Structure formats: structure tokens, C-alpha cells
């Protein structure tokens, strides 16, 4: 059946038919004589033995199974040969079967037989026993091989000798290797012979290993010939590297330990170089070094692995050489010069064809390189793609040791340059895609070894320049990434590089310790030599020293002139890395100023980038990224770079001469506008401009700086000290000014217009502040107008001046009309009810260059040049050729200045003509003139006057120009009054630099006012009959040309005194607050306006007392405030001789009776008291100061006609003052005479009751119809007409009535508390004739109600005015006029209340 069951627990199922068929076939072949019986029996026995052998393993584990297994084998003895069983079975089983006697004896016999077979040698195989056979063998191998002798013929002879003399084949092979070693030039013959002779590669490895072992004893040197034959055998695959490698010494573990030891020793040496070592420690170190030298004298065995590696490289076997180097640490093998040179030679041969085709410079021939004869060597590269095969990996394994072959280094660099140029110039996308991988491998596998190689090339400037030729083809981002790896990672990869770094630092210290201004040239050469190989380490140390000692900046910058282009680029990277160091704080510990290290680096940046051709893109992008991150500290760098490279300075400490020069053309600015002479900035400015345009950074930097100004306050300023916030804001603003000025003066018209968007896009989309947006757009408008003007002049030929002016006006209209439309979206629609967009755009688009020609500045600079020419001519020491050049230069500058002055004069005339044509449409004044002035101040004057020093002067001059142009609806008096009367909040909100500008603005405004005040003729010429000096402020359509509405000279002097008083009051308030910002800013402002203020003696004394108090209080607390106060105090004392008493400053008559000394009247404080009196509390010295003075002058007689006219000026000040603010102002009044508390309370109550009626009365007076005003004037002629018309003054036209009500509604929020007293003059009413009174009684009434010098009699209701006037004005005409005005006021009040309800 198909299932056979055997005794036991196991059963097997199989197809017995197949086995039976096989046995039948086998037997059938024997029967027919096809197979021998012995063979079949052997096969059957062998099969059975295999089965028994497989069962042996499991059967021998247990005793029961072992017995059954022995019985089975015994049963099989009759058909299994005994010899096969003895061969296959173990001795113990054989002993149990009885085939052998004892297993132990059998084992010993086996060992003896094997020893005899394998290890016992016949005596006749030794050389001394069979010397004839070996001698013939050596003769056969040493014969001349130049003929027709081949390895096949020699092999036949060798076989004959072996057979004849019974020579040992292995010994013969050893002799063949010995002869090959002595004749290593016959590689082809011996390799062919060995390949034909040898039987097993392992045997050949054993023989070579025995030869290498012989030279592994100390003081033994392995011959190079042995390395050569081993390398040749490996190269031709006659032996395997794995088989031979185990026979070579030392082992890999020893090599790794040696490498680690070298690294630790190098680090120890580096540590010693940077440590301060005591003399005792130095002697101990010397003893240790001597011991190490003695140990080294006992020469260790050769490193046979390195010897074999060198031989492999010499014959071009890169594959096996690579396998050996992979077993060793990085760069361990190539650190041995012989190996490095062998690998360099292999690279030479690999790149030679490609270098000849693509890398060889024109005109160069180069040294011819013969290729290797071996066909198995790396194939030479024919294209850049072939370099990926082997060359890149070879260069990577060379690493820094490529420095052993500078010629190869130059070749590879030139190939890299050629490849990059080909890659960049090829426009085909398919080719570029294929080369992208090659580009990546080129940078990754070759650029890094380039930098490592440069570290080892001592003082090789040529290689540095060659490498820069390749590096400059990469973007700066890739270069800086490589420099970062070079500086921070490369020096730790090899012991030799660790030592190089330490030596470089030591040498850098030596040079920097001795660097001075006197030895810049010698030290510069040493720095140059050191920087050629290790620039990163050198510059890192130099920058660290500069951060500590800023006096090193100048000598260091001068000493860098011997650097290469690559070194300059590395220097730029090192500077950026130092700036971005996260471990350094950019603020000092007091958190109020920028750290000195950052200031030093910024100064270095400006000097280095100006003097040397260093790429700026990285530094500019760094500043841009910092601004994007909301950090403004690094704007200091941009400020220094622009200042040094473009010669553009931004400072608020300009003298008046410099400021005047800055209002002229570019040549005048360069000659007289800056502190230093700006020379040789053309090239550096061009480099800066190109960097900005190439990387599209010009506009982003401007916008980021404009936005960052507010970011400094609201984003950065949260946790920072207020002083630091102000400093950062000023730095951001100044840098914006400087940078914008650079772009405006260096960019072409096309470039500027192309990059700067329109004003509405700047403000609405980029959220640029309006002042900054117009600052950026202003040059664009000027460029466009001039371009259009030139275009019109070419199209229409006409040389007459009038035609040119009309063309200029037409050009302005064409350019500015879109701007007028664009600015409408910048503000709400109600703004344009008073200001026309044309006026707004004109104000923001013009500059001082457009308004006036600085003739004196031009004349001053021309005279300077004339003096220089004269000095040059009189100096005998100057050579003639130099004299000639200097004279030509000065003459050329003189001509340029004169031509520029003429050009500016023509331009100013055209601009003034244009303004004259436009002025009638500037101001609509649909509301009051007060509203118009408010919008003008808010949107135009105040934002721009603190933008820059030039803008401060411009704002003052623009106000004067608008006045001189007799602009309709512009009230000059009100504008000046609003500027001078409320400076406290403006001063308090300024930064330090803004205070300088605001002070300069006030100084220019005061200068104009002082000029009018000082001379009656000037005042009558420039102010009388000008609409700006009308004292009745009404809406459009109500302007009166009556002479009575004009402010006369004497009243103007009163008003000026009032302005001086208000300035003093505000100044004393700021000085007494104790706040740092208030005190600093007001001292700066006072210093700026010192030439024009104070002019009155008692006001100057009041200021002097307060400033003296500041000096005493701040001497030990805040030194900067103390310095400011002391400086101002000294200058104020110098101005005392120019001060005049109050009665000389304006017409003032002493009161009849006065309880207060004269030196305490009309001043802001008790100036006659000593300085210590200022320390009194506000209750005693400041509360209700004005009222105290008023009481002391209680017997003063009524005001005269002049004062009445001045009172008109006070009717529409428009300052919104609540009762609370009025109270604060009274309490803050400095140095007043103290009053009783009861009287103060009564006064306050009266003021509160009268507040509403007074405001309504003033609004009614302001809206009085023109017909009623004419009636009031007519009443002065005859009392009869006055009585007849007294009842007709009440009615009001319906339309006018509605306008008045509407206007009252529009002013409910802001103007409801308006007080018409800011134009008041703090002067007592004079006792002049009654015939001069009564010209403007309404103004007089308001003047009496708010003047600080009115009598102590108080008025709280409109009817109190009547009573008050009856006691003070003994004139029936005045009483009638009072009644008439009060009726009008009440009529308007009735309608206003009705409308509100």
C-alpha cells in the first residue's frame, strides 16, 4: 500500500512507487550491464549512510535512542561499506559497533596523520637542500625581458624546474614575488605570470601577509616595493583586500585611539595658547614636552595600511583606496603628506582633459600630464557631468590637505568658475534641470574643501583671489552659509585645524596689542598675511576687541587695505554675525541707552563699507529683517552706513549758517551744510544705490522705517524706559530722513518714480504716516514738475520770462492735479470745508528750496573759496602742479555755486508766481477762521515743523509767506497766537530731537514777530492793510476792510508781550512739574529760542529763578538735566544785557495806586524774590496768580482805544477750555501774589455761573450780521442816530440766523467751552483820553473778562457787564452800545437754546 508503518511512535507517509521505480531502474541497468555492481552498491550504501548520519544528531541525545540507533547501523553493515562508516560516523559509535578498538587511540591516530600530511616538510624543498633548482628558477625570472620572452614561456620553464628538482610550489611563488619586488617596473610580465601560476588567492595572501609581518618589528621600515606589488595584485583582482587587510598593522582600534589622542593634544595646545601660564607651570610643561620627545625617538612600526593606501593611489586603484580610507577617521589618511600628494596626483590626471578644454586661462599653456597606463584607473573627465563620478569624492577625502598642491587647488577652482558661468549663461531649461544636481554637488563637495584648504595655505593671496572668483558667482546667502560652517564647524574636524585656530588667535592677539595709528602700515601687512588663510578667526577676534575699545576703529579700518576680495566678504559676514549675536544685550544695564558695543560696530560698518568695496546686500537685508521683526536698534547701522557712504548727516545741532546752507542746492549743502567736508562719496554712494536697487530694498526700508516709528512707541516701548523709547523713535525718524534724502539725491527720476507709489497708496494701503508719505513723494513731485516744465519749453519755443513762468504753472497743474484728487481720501470730508486739497498738497509738496534763496550762504561759501585760492597762491611750500589743481578745483566749485544760486533764484520766482495765482483758492473758511487755523495747525503746521530742522524753518517761513501773499481767510494773528499760547502739551509730547525742531520752529516764528515788534515802519509795511491782521474773525463773506478792524502797532506790541508772557508761563509750568521729559524738552526749546526770547527783564528773571532751582535739584539726581539747565542758565545770563523793562517792550503806564512792588507786576512770578522762594507750594505761590496781580492793580483806569482794538483780537481765540482746565491754569500760574481762599472761592463760583452766558455772548458777537456792525459804527457819529437805531439792532435775517444756529450746533462738542482770551495782552489798562475808547466795545468787554490785569471787580452775568461798564466807562455812548450788543447776544442765545431742545 501507500502507507508503511514502522515500529515506534512515528509514521511516514510517502509515495513508495517513486522509490521502487528508482530502485528498479537502478537494478535493471546493472542486469543489462550498463552499470557496474560496485558503483551501484556504493551509491546505495552512500544513501544509507546519509540517512544514518542525519539520524545521528537526534539519536545521540538520549540513551534509549542511542541503543536503537546502534542496532540500526549494525543491521546495515552487510550492505554499507565499513570505510564509509569510519569516515562519516563518530569514534564513539564506531567503538560500540566494534569497527574500532578504542575511540581515544583512533583520535590520536587521526591527529598524527593530519600533522604528517599538512605540517611535515620534506627536507629537499629547502633552498639549502635544493639550491641548484632554486638558482635556476631565480636565473629564469631575472633574465632580460625586453625580447620576445613572455610570461607563458617562463611559466613552462618554471613547471619543468619544479618537476625536475621537486620544488615546493609555494616556495616557488614566494621567490616569484621576491623577484617581482626587485623588478617592480615589470608589472605586466609578473602579474600575467602570477595570474597563470597561482592556484588559490588565499595562498597568495598568506605569503604576502608573511612578508608584511616580517617588517612589523620596531625600527623596521616596510619597503615601498612590497606595497607596490600588493597594490598591483589588489588592483588586478588577484587577491582580495579583506584577505590582505587582516595581515597589516596597526589594527583599526589603534588608529582610532591615535586620532583621538591627537585631537586631545591639539585642544590642549589650543587651551594653553589662550591661557595665562605662570613661570612655574611653564617649566613643568617643558619637562613634559622633553619626555614626549624622548618617547617619540623610539620609532614605532610603520603604518602598513597607509603605505598600501599610498601605493594604491600611485597606480590609480581608487576603489580599494577608498575602502581603506573608509576604515579610518576623517582626514586621518590624507593628513600624511605622501598620501595627500598621491591623491592630488590622481585628481590631476582625472581633471586634466576637462581643465584643458574649459578651465585653462587664455594664453596659459600649463604642464602636460601623462595619463596612467592602467586601464582600471579612474577615467579622465571629459565633461562636468563626469566630475560626479570620482573627482568630487576624491576632493572631499582630501579636505584641508589639498593645500599640499596649490596648483591642483587653482585648477579645481577655475573649473568651478567655468562651470558656474556655463550654468548661469545657459538658458535652456532642460540643460539647467540636468545641471541643478551638479551645482548642488559642486557646492557641497568642493566648496567646503576649498575653504578648509585655504586654512592651510599660508599667506597665499593669489589662491584667495582665485577662490573669490568662484564664490562671487553664488548669491550672498549661500556664501554666508559657507562662511558660517567655515567659522563654526571646520576647525573642530581635524587636530591640525584645531592647532591652526589656536595659532591664529595667538597671532591676532599679538598684532592687536601693538596696533596704533603710527604703525598702521606694518600692522596692516601682518593682518593681511594672517587673513589670507584664516579670515574668520582673525576678524572674530578683531571685532570682539572693537566692541570693547572703540578707539581701535580708525586704525583697524586703515589696516584693512591689504585684504583680498574674499576677506572683505568674510568680514561683512563676521560683522553681521556679531550684530546678530543673541547673547549680547543691545541696551545698557540702565535700559535707557543703546549698548556701546552696538554703537562701535555701527561706526565700524560705516567706515569699512565706505572705504572698501564690500557687498552691502547682506547688511541691508539684515537691517530689513530686523525691522520686519519689529526691532529698531539696528537702524543705527543703516544710519552710519548712509552717513559715511553718501555723506548725508542728520543732526539737530546745526548752526544757523549750516541750516541756511541746507536750504540751497546740492552743491551748497555739500560745501556748507554739513559739519565735515563731504568728499569722494561718489563711488560709495553709487555702490549703496546699486545694492538697494538690485535687491529691491529701497522702498521696503523706507516703509518699514516709517511704520516702525509708531511701532517703537506702541510695540517696543511697553517695557522700555521712556528715555530709551524716545531715543529709538528719534533714531528711526532720523534714519528715515537720512535714507529718504539719499534716495532723493541719488536715484534717477525714472528709478524714483518707478519705485515710489502715489500718496493715497502709500497712506491707505501701506499705512504710512502722512508726513513720511509726503516726505517720500516730495522729490517725485519736484522731478515730475521739472520734467514736464522742460518738456513744455521744448514744445513751445519762447524765451521770455513771462512765458517760462506760465509754462511752469501749467506743468505744476498737470503734475499736481492727480495729487489734489488723491489727498482727498486722506482725511474726512469735513476737513475740506475750510482747507482746499490744493492748499494742503501745496504745503506738503514744497520745500525751503522753493520759497527763498539763501544769498548770504552762497556768498559766504564763495568768499571761503576765494580765501582758499588766495592762501594757495601765497603758500610757497605747495608744488606748482598741486597749486594749479587746487586753484582749478576751487574755481570750479565757485562757478558751480554761482550757477546754482542763479538757477535757484529763477526757480523761486516761478514758485512764488505760482503761489500768487493759487492763493485765492486755498482757504474756503465755510466755518470760522478759528476752525480754519485749527485745521491748518493740526494737519499741516505741527506735523511738519517737528519732522526735520529744515521743515521747522519751512513751516515758519510758509506762514510768513501766506501772510505776505495776502491770502484770503487766513488770520496771521490767530495763527501766531495759537502757536505761542499753548505750547505745554506740544512740548510734553515731543522726543528730544523733536524738541530741537520745535524750538527752532518757535525761534523762526519769534524772529518774524520780533522784527515786526521792533520797528513801526516795518510793521506798517508788512502787516497793516493785510488780511492776516484783521481783528474781526468771521466766516467768508463778512471780511471788512475798515481801518478800524486792523490791529495798530502799539496794540500789536501788547499782544507780543502777551505771547512772551504765555511762553514764560508755559515754561515755568514745565520746569516745575518735576517730570524728566517736560524739563528736558522745555530747556531744549528755551535754548533754541534764546535769541528772540526772553526780551522782557522780569520774564527773564522768572525763568532764571526756575532754572536755578532745577540746577540745584538735579545736580546729583539727573546729570543730563543738570547739564542742560546749567548750559541754558549761562547763556540766559549772557542775554540779560539785551533785555528791557516791560514799559520799554510795550506802552505801559504805572497804576495810580499799587500795593505790589513794580518788579512783581505783570510777570509770571515773583521775580524779585530770591530763588529759594520758588519752592513754595502751589497754594501759596501759584494759585490764582493772575487774580492776585489784578487785585494789586484794582484802581487802574479803563482801557483806551488801542486796548479796545487789541480786545478785538481776543474775541475768537477758539481755545477749548473747560472750567476744570481754567482752574488748573490758574493754579499753575507761577509766582503770583497769594489771595485769600474765600475770595478765590467766590471768583470760581462767579466764573462757573458766567461760563455759559459768556460763551453764548461771544458766539453771538462773532455771528453779528454785517448790517448791524455798520450800524454800530454809525452810532459813533451822533448820539441822535444812535438812539434812533437802538431799537433796530435786534432783528436778524432768517438765513443768517439759521447759519448761526447751525454753526453753534457744529461746535457743541469742542467749541462750547471756547474762551476768547488767548490773544489777551497782560498789560494794565492805561489812563488815556476817553475819546480814544469805544471803537470795539465788545472786544473790550471780553478783554476785561479774561485779562489777567483787569480790576478785582468780577462779573458773572451779562447784566453784570452793564453795571460794570457804568462804573468804569462814564460815557453814554458806551452804555447804549453795551445794551445793543447784549440784546443781540440774548436773541442768539434764545434760538440756540430752542434748537438744542
Overview of this protein structure:
The protein is an all-alpha fold and 1397 residues long. It is built from 66 helices and four strands. The chain has a two-stranded antiparallel ribbon with strand order 1-2. Strands 3-4 form a two-stranded antiparallel ribbon. Strand 1 and strand 2 form a beta hairpin. The longest helix is centred in the middle third of the chain and has 39 residues. It is elongated. The N and C termini lie far apart (128 Å). InterPro entries: Tho2, THO_THOC2_C, THO_THOC2_N, THOC2_N. One of its GO terms (biological process) is mRNA processing. This is THO complex subunit 2. Its main location: nucleus. Belongs to the THOC2 family.
Overall, the morphology is elongated
Number of strands: 4
Radius of gyration: 53 Å
Biggest sheet: strand arrangement = 1-2
Sheet-strand content, in percent, reads under 5%
User: How many helices does DSSP assign?
Assistant: 66
Mean pLDDT: 76
Derived from helix and strand composition plus strand pairing, the structural class reads mainly alpha
Name the helicity range: 55-70%
Span of the ends, CA to CA: 128 Å
As an assembly, this protein is single chain
Sheet bearing the most strands, described?
2 strands, antiparallel
Low-confidence stretches: 1-14, 294-298, 1035-1040, 1152-1239, 1249-1372, 1390-1397
GO molecular function, one term: mRNA binding
Organism: Sander lucioperca (Pike-perch)
Pfam families: Tho2, Thoc2, THOC2_N
Keywords: Coiled coil, Nucleus
Amino acid at each position: 500500500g501507500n502507507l508503511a508503518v514502522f515500529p515506534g511512535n512515528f509514521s511516514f507517509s510517502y509515495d513508495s512507487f517513486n522509490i521502487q521505480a528508482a530502485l528498479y531502474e537502478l537494478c535493471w541497468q546493472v542486469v543489462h550491464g550498463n552499470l557496474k555492481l560496485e558503483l551501484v552498491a556504493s551509491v546505495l550504501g552512500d544513501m544509507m549512510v546519509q540517512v544514518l548520519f542525519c539520524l545521528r544528531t537526534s539519536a545521540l541525545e538520549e540513551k534509549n535512542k542511542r541503543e536503537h540507533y546502534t542496532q540500526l547501523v549494525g543491521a546495515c553493515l552487510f550492505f554499507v561499506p565499513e570505510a564509509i562508516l569510519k569516515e562519516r560516523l563518530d569514534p564513539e559509535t564506531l567503538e560500540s559497533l566494534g569497527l574500532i578498538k578504542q575511540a581515544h587511540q583512533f583520535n590520536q591516530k587521526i591527529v598524527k596523520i593530519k600533522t604528517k600530511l599538512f605540517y611535515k616538510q620534506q627536507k629537499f624543498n629547502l633552498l639549502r637542500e635544493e639550491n641548484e633548482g632554486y638558482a635556476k628558477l631565480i636565473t629564469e625570472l631575472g633574465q632580460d625581458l625586453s625580447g620576445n620572452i613572455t610570461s607563458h614561456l617562463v611559466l613552462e620553464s618554471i613547471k619543468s624546474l619544479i618537476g625536475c628538482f621537486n620544488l615546493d610550489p609555494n616556495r616557488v611563488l614566494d621567490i616569484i614575488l621576491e623577484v617581482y619586488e626587485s623588478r617592480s617596473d615589470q608589472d605586466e610580465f609578473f602579474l600575467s605570470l602570477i595570474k597563470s601560476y597561482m592556484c588559490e588567492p588565499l595562498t597568495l595572501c598568506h605569503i604576502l601577509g608573511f612578508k608584511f609581518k616580517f617588517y612589523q618589528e620596531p625600527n623596521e621600515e616596510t619597503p615601498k616595493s612590497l606595497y607596490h606589488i600588493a597594490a598591483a595584485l589588489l588592483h588586478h583582482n588577484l587577491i582580495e583586500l579583506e584577505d590582505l587587510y587582516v595581515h597589516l598593522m596597526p589594527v583599526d582600534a589603534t588608529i582610532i585611539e591615535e586620532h583621538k589622542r591627537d585631537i586631545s593634544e591639539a585642544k590642549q595646545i589650543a587651551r594653553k595658547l589662550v591661557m595665562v601660564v605662570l613661570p612655574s607651570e611653564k617649566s613643568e610643561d617643558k619637562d613634559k614636552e622633553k619626555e614626549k620627545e624622548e618617547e617619540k625617538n623610539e620609532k614605532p612600526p610603520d603604518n602598513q595600511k597607509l603605505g598600501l593606501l599610498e601605493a594604491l593611489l600611485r597606480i590609480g586603484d581608487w576603489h580599494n583606496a577608498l575602502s581603506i580610507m573608509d576604515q579610518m577617521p576623517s582626514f586621518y589618511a590624507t593628513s600624511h603628506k605622501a598620501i595627500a600628494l598621491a591623491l592630488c596626483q590622481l585628481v590631476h590626471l582625472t581633471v586634466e582633459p576637462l581643465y584643458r578644454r574649459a578651465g585653462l586661462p587664455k594664453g596659459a599653456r600649463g604642464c602636460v600630464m601623462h595619463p596612467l597606463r592602467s586601464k582600471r584607473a579612474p577615467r579622465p573627465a571629459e565633461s562636468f557631468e563626469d566630475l560626479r563620478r570620482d573627482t568630487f569624492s576624491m576632493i572631499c577625502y582630501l579636505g584641508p590637505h589639498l593645500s599640499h598642491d596649490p596648483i591642483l587647488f587653482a585648477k579645481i577652482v577655475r573649473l568651478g568658475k567655468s562651470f558656474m558661468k556655463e550654468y548661469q549663461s545657459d538658458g535652456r531649461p532642460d540643460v539647467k534641470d540636468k545641471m541643478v544636481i551638479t551645482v548642488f554637488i559642486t557646492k557641497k563637495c568642493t566648496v567646503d574643501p576649498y575653504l578648509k584648504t585655504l586654512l592651510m595655505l599660508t599667506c597665499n593671496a593669489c589662491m584667495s583671489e582665485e577662490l573669490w572668483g568662484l564664490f562671487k558667482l553664488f548669491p550672498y546667502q549661500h556664501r554666508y552659509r559657507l562662511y558660517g560652517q567655515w567659522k563654526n564647524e571646520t576647525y573642530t574636524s581635524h587636530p591640525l585645524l584645531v592647532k591652526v585656530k589656536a595659532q591664529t588667535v595667538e597671532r591676532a592677539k599679538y598684532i592687536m596689542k601693538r596696533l596704533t595709528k603710527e604703525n598702521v602700515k606694518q600692522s596692516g601687512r601682518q593682518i593681511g598675511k594672517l587673513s589670507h588663510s584664516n579670515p574668520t578667526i582673525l576678524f572674530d577676534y578683531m571685532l570682539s576687541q572693537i566692541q570693547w575699545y572703540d578707539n581701535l576703529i580708525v586704525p583697524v579700518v586703515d589696516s584693512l587695505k591689504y585684504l583680498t576680495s574674499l576677506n572683505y566678504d568674510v568680514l561683512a559676514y563676521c560683522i553681521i554675525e556679531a550684530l546678530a549675536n543673541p547673547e549680547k544685550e543691545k541696551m545698557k544695564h540702565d535700559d535707557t541707552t543703546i549698548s556701546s558695543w552696538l554703537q562701535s560696530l555701527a561706526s565700524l560698518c560705516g567706515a569699512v563699507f565706505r572705504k572698501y568695496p564690500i557687498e552691502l546686500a547682506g547688511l541691508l537685508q539684515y537691517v530689513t529683517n530686523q525691522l520686519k521683526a519689529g526691532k529698531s536698534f539696528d537702524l543705527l547701522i543703516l544710519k552710519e552706513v548712509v552717513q559715511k557712504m553718501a555723506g548725508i548727516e542728520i543732526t539737530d545741532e546745526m548752526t544757523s549758517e549750516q541750516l541756511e546752507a541746507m536750504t540751497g542746492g546740492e552743491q551748497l549743502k555739500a560745501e556748507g551744510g554739513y559739519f565735515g567736508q563731504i568728499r569722494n562719496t561718489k563711488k560709495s554712494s553709487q555702490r549703496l544705490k546699486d545694492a538697494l536697487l538690485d535687491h529691491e530694498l529701497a522702498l521696503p526700508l523706507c516703509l518699514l522705517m516709517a511704520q516702525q516709528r509708531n511701532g517703537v512707541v506702541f510695540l517696543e516701548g511697553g517695557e522700555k524706559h521712556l528715555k530709551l523709547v524716545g531715543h529709538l523713535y528719534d533714531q528711526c525718524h532720523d534714519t528715515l530722513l537720512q535714507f529718504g534724502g539719499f534716495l532723493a539725491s541719488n536715484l534717477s527720476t525714472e528709478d524714483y518714480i518707478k519705485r515710489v507709489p502715489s500718496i493715497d497708496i502709500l497712506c491707505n494701503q501701506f499705512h504710512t504716516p502722512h508726513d513720511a508719505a509726503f516726505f517720500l513723494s516730495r522729490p517725485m513731485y519736484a522731478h515730475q514738475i521739472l520734467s514736464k516744465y522742460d518738456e513744455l519749453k521744448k514744445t513751445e519755443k519762447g524765451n521770455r520770462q513771462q512765458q517760462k513762468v506760465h509754462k511752469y504753472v501749467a506743468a505744476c497743474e498737470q503734475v499736481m492735479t492727480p495729487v489734489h484728487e488723491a489727498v482727498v481720501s486722506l482725511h474726512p470730508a469735513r476737513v475740506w470745508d475750510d482747507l482746499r486739497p490744493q492748499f494742503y498738497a501745496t504745503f506738503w509738496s514744497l520745500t525751503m528750496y522753493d520759497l527763498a534763496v539763501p544769498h548770504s550762504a552762497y556768498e559766504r561759501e564763495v568768499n571761503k573759496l576765494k580765501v582758499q585760492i588766495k592762501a594757495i597762491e601765497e603758500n610757497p611750500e605747495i608744488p606748482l602742479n598741486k597749486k594749479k589743481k587746487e586753484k582749478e578745483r576751487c574755481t570750479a566749485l565757485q562757478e558751480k555755486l554761482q550757477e546754482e544760486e542763479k538757477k535757484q533764484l529763477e526757480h523761486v520766482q516761478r514758485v512764488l508766481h505760482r503761489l500768487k495765482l493759487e492763493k485765492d483758492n486755498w482757504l474756503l473758511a465755510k466755518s470760522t477762521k478759528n476752525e480754519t487755523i485749527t485745521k491748518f495747525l493740526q494737519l499741516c503746521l505741527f506735523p511738519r515743523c517737528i519732522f526735520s530742522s529744515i521743515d521747522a524753518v519751512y513751516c515758519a517761513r510758509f506762514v510768513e509767506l501766506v501772510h505776505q501773499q495776502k491770502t484770503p481767510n487766513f488770520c496771521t494773528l490767530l495763527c501766531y497766537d495759537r502757536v505761542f499760547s499753548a505750547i505745554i502739551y506740544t512740548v510734553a509730547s515731543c522726543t528730544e530731537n523733536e524738541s530741537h525742531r520745535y524750538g527752532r520752529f518757535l525761534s523762526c516764528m519769534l524772529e518774524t514777530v520780533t522784527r515786526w515788534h521792533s520797528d513801526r515802519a516795518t510793521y506798517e509795511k508788512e502787516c497793516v492793510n493785510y488780511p492776516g491782521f484783521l481783528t474781526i474773525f468771521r466766516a467768508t463773506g463778512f471780511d471788512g476792510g475798515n481801518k478800524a478792524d486792523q490791529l495798530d502797532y502799539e496794540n500789536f506790541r501788547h499782544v507780543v508781550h502777551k505771547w512772551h508772557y504765555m511762553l514764560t508761563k508755559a515754561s515755568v509750568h514745565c520746569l516745575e512739574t518735576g517730570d524728566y521729559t517736560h524739563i528736558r524738552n522745555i530747556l531744549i526749546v528755551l535754548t533754541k529760542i534764546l535769541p528772540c526770547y526772553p526780551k522782557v527783564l522780569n520774564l527773564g528773571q522768572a525763568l532764571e529763578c526756575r532754572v536755578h532751582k532745577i540746577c540745584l535739584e538735579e545736580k546729583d539726581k539727573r546729570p543730563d538735566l543738570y547739564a542742560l539747565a546749567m548750559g541754558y542758565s549761562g547763556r540766559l545770563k549772557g542775554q540779560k544785557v539785551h533785555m528791557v523793562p516791560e514799559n520799554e517792550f510795550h506802552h505801559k503806564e504805572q497804576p495810580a495806586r499799587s500795593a505790589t512792588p513794580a518788579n512783581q507786576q505783570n510777570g509770571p512770578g515773583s521775580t524779585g524774590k530770591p530763588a529759594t522762594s520758588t519752592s513754595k507750594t502751589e497754594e501759596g505761590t501759584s494759585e490764582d496768580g493772575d487774580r492776585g496781580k489784578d487785585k494789586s492793580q484794582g484802581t487802574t483806569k479803563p482801557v483806551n482805544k488801542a486796548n479796545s482794538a487789541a480786545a478785538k483780537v481776543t474775541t475768537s481765540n477758539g481755545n477749548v477750555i473747560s472750567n476744570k482746565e481754567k482752574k488748573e491754569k490758574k493754579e499753575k500760574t507761577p509766582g503770583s501774589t497769594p489771595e485769600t481762599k474765600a475770595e478765590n472761592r467766590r471768583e470760581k463760583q462767579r466764573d462757573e455761573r458766567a461760563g455759559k452766558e459768556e460763551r453764548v455772548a461771544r458766539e453771538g458777537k462773532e455771528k453779528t450780521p454785517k448790517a448791524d456792525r455798520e450800524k454800530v459804527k454809525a452810532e459813533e457819529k451822533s448820539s441822535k442816530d444812535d438812539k434812533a437805531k437802538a431799537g433796530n439792532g435786534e432783528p436778524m435775517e432768517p438765513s443768517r440766523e439759521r447759519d448761526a444756529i447751525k454753526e453753534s450746533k457744529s461746535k457743541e462738542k469742542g467749541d462750547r467751552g471756547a474762551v476768547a482770551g488767548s490773544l489777551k495782552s497782560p498789560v494794565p489798562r492805561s489812563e488815556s483820553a476817553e475819546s480814544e475808547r469805544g471803537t470795539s466795545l465788545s472786544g473790550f468787554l471780553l478783554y476785561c473778562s479774561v485779562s489777567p490785569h483787569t480790576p478785582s471787580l468780577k462779573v458773572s452775568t451779562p447784566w453784570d457787564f452793564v453795571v460794570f461798564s457804568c462804573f468804569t466807562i462814564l460815557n453814554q455812548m458806551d452804555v447804549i452800545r453795551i445794551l445793543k450788543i447784549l440784546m443781540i447776544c440774548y436773541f442768539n442765545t434764545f434760538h440756540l437754546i430752542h434748537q438744542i431742545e
